[in-house]
Design brief:
The complex is a heterodimer of chains A (275) and B (343). With 275 residues, chain A is of the alpha/beta class. Chain A has five helices and 15 strands. Chain A is globular and about 50 Å long. The termini of chain A are far apart. In chain B, helix 6 packs across helix 8. In chain B, 44% of the residues are buried. In chain B, the strands form two sheets. Chain B has an eight-stranded mixed beta sheet with strand order 3-2-5-6-7-8-1-9, sandwiched between helices. In chain B, strands 4-11-10 form a three-stranded antiparallel beta sheet, with no helix packed on it. Classes of the chains: A alpha/beta (275), B alpha/beta (343).
Chain lengths: 275, 343
């Protein structure tokens, strides 16, 4: 009967901060105790006396003594995340929720679509896949951002592109004056036209702003992907993380417990899933 | 066993004063001085408390004594050993939802669990009904026949005691040592059965105009226009959810000031505008009618999927509390009918 308090928080120290874009930064943290997780799961990050919020680690799940968490400045707590300094103490509880079932994907062609800060969870997935790259037939990563300055993980691209079996395409919606860009200029969904697609029994992961997830999913269905093979990261307001506060419910499902990773077939009959 | 009502009251006061059985607190329904109607509120007993053990449910839900409006989860608040008397069928039925939601194999709310473990509950049969009472409409009863520690059924100024758990056994021992309990004559059970039936009939009669089909899965198919119309009276205050015996939505706040992390939970309401809004401003239910409809779907559809039970125990408190005078029973009936038409 006696279970651990699910609200127990582990302290962690920020040892490095990477400014990825004007609004997105990656906190690199060292928890006091290792935090093992499966890629796709999320944690609740505490800024002491300010608040906490759900974030998906962006580092590989093969690393548990350190963690990267990429966060966009978009609300109250994240404003303080963007004021944090190296050496600051934060809190982490979790991990919670479902993960990407990468063991089931052996021998397959894995397609990943990450838009904006949605590249964060997919970077965790991608780097976890790279750990055992021999297990997969190929990995295609389609990355999208509004402008070149908004594109994150720039420093890693070169290295990722040099890996065999990896195809890494990037696009931006537009190139404002004064910014440079030599890659695609289109919506991320248009990148699907530029790759070889093999939808039969192969998984595809979509993570990004709701509008991209919605139209990405619609396009993938047109390309022939099965509903059960489309993995969506349904990030809702996961307050408690443990299915007690009900803020994140998608109909009968809890995004925090039954998700955040859902296959499309599971939730397609629920209401307002894209909002 | 049979106990005289006055003896039982003196036992409760003695229990509170002398911490009999280790109880640090004895909580009873007392008459409300502010309301003209006969309605009760839970309170800690003292010498001059106007105790009302019978009648019908209290204004405040029993849930609020197990899941307070604000509690510290980390480090987890400690619970007192308590005796709560006068719980009614609708509130007891709510535990079937709350226990599944908050003490499950995945995660346990440590504070709720502590209150559940530390509390002995004596339920009492309803002897009257309120205007909004409708337990029979949701397959409930105006008395408790399961999950109680001890139940008291009123009979001619006395109570028939039924024990329902080990905690109830222990309590009975203490009662035997403290006050006089007599053996039943034999026909009490029959009389009580009759009394219960009479109250049930009253409830059924009162609610006959609200009878609806029980295929609540159809509720979500009903015409959206109907919900828009019904929600026009709603001011989105969240009173209905705060007073509901099965609602348990909370927010978790961080109140860390020192080295130890501190997490506090407080009530929230799906009727409030900011409820499901995420950072950046997106919300799955930005309009009032969507949030209004969500409460009904949560109770009759989502909770049914989650817990195999509907989330309404028919207490009617949401009707009493509503500033917009929304008749919950009528909204359900109407929208169940609309969904039928559409099929």
């Amino acid at each position: 009967m006696a279970q651990a308090n699910p609200y127990e928080v582990s302290a962690a120290e920020i040892y490095e901060i990477i400014e990825e874009s004007p609004t997105i930064r990656t906190l690199r943290v060292k928890p006091e105790k290792p935090i093992p997780f499966k890629t796709g799961q999320f944690i609740e990050l505490t800024i002491p006396n300010i608040g906490e919020g759900p974030f998906t680690p962006s580092s590989s799940h093969y690393i548990s003594d350190k963690m990267d968490i990429t966060i966009m400045k978009t609300g109250f707590v994240t404003e303080y995340v963007h004021k944090a300094k190296v050496g600051d103490r934060i809190g982490i509880r979790g991990p919670y929720g479902t993960n990407y079932p990468i063991d089931e994907w052996r021998g397959k062609d894995v397609l990943i679509m990450g838009g904006g800060v949605g590249m964060a969870p997919t970077r965790s997935l991608f780097t976890s896949l790279l750990h055992d790259i021999d297990n997969y037939n190929s990995i295609t990563f389609l990355a999208g951002a509004r402008t070149p300055n908004d594109m994150i993980y720039k420093q890693h691209i070169q290295g990722w592109r040099e890996i065999d079996k990896v195809n890494f395409l990037r696009s931006v919606d537009r190139v404002p004056e004064g910014e440079e860009w030599s890659e695609e200029v289109c919506l991320i969904t248009k990148l699907l036209d530029k790759i070889d697609i093999n939808p039969k029994d192969n998984p595809v992961v979509v993570c990004g702003p709701p509008i991209m997830m919605k139209f990405g999913t619609m396009d993938l269905l047109k390309y022939g992907y099965a509903e059960k093979d489309i993995y969506l990261s349904m990030e809702k307001k996961m307050y408690c993380g443990i299915g007690h506060c009900r803020h994140c419910v998608i109909g009968k499902y809890y995004a925090c417990k039954d998700g955040p990773v859902f296959t499309y077939d599971k939730i397609l009959n629920e209401e307002n899933i894209w909002e | 066993m049979i106990v005289k009502a006055e003896d039982f009251l003196s036992f409760l006061i003695k229990c509170q004063k002398e911490s009999l059985g280790g109880f640090q607190q004895v909580i009873v329904p007392r008459k409300s001085k502010n309301v003209e109607e006969v309605q009760q509120l839970f309170t800690e007993i003292c010498d001059n408390t106007d105790v009302v053990l019978d009648s019908y449910r209290t204004i405040d839900p029993l849930r609020a004594l197990f899941y307070f409006s604000r509690e510290t989860l980390l480090p987890a608040d400690k619970a007192k050993k308590r005796l709560i008397v006068g719980a009614k069928g609708c509130d007891m039925a709510a535990f079937q939802i709350l226990d599944k939601a908050l003490i499950n194999e995945d995660f346990v709310d440590p504070v709720y669990q502590a209150w559940r473990e530390q509390t002995t509950i004596i339920s009492t049969d309803c002897t009257e009904i309120g205007d909004s009472c409708h337990c029979t409409l949701v397959k409930g009863k105006p008395y408790t026949d399961q999950n109680y520690d001890m139940n008291l059924s009123a009979i001619n100024g006395n109570y028939l005691i039924t024990v329902g758990s080990e905690k109830g056994e222990e309590l009975l021992k203490i009662m035997k040592d403290t006050i006089f309990l007599s053996q039943p004559h034999g026909n009490e059970k029959e009389t009580i059965k009759k009394n219960r039936k009479a109250i049930e009939e009253k409830l059924k009669q009162q609610n006959s105009k609200y009878i609806r089909s029980e295929d609540y899965g159809n509720l979500r198919k009903s015409d959206i226009e109907g919900w828009i119309e019904d929600s026009k009276q709603c001011i989105g205050c969240g009173g209905c959810t705060n007073i509901c015996p099965t609602c348990y939505c909370i927010i978790v706040n961080d109140e860390t000031t020192g080295k130890e992390f501190v997490k506090v939970r407080s009530y929230d309401s799906c009727q409030l505008h900011g409820y499901a809004k995420v950072a950046g401003g997106d919300s799955p239910r930005p309009k009032m009618y969507q949030r209004f409809r969500n409460r009904y779907l949560c109770k009759f559809d989502y909770m049914k999927s989650n817990f195999d039970l509907i989330g309404c125990t028919g207490c009617g408190r949401c009707i009493d509390v509503c500033a917009g005078e929304i008749e919950f029973r009528e909204v359900v009936r109407k929208n169940m009918q609309l969904s039928k038409v559409q099929e």
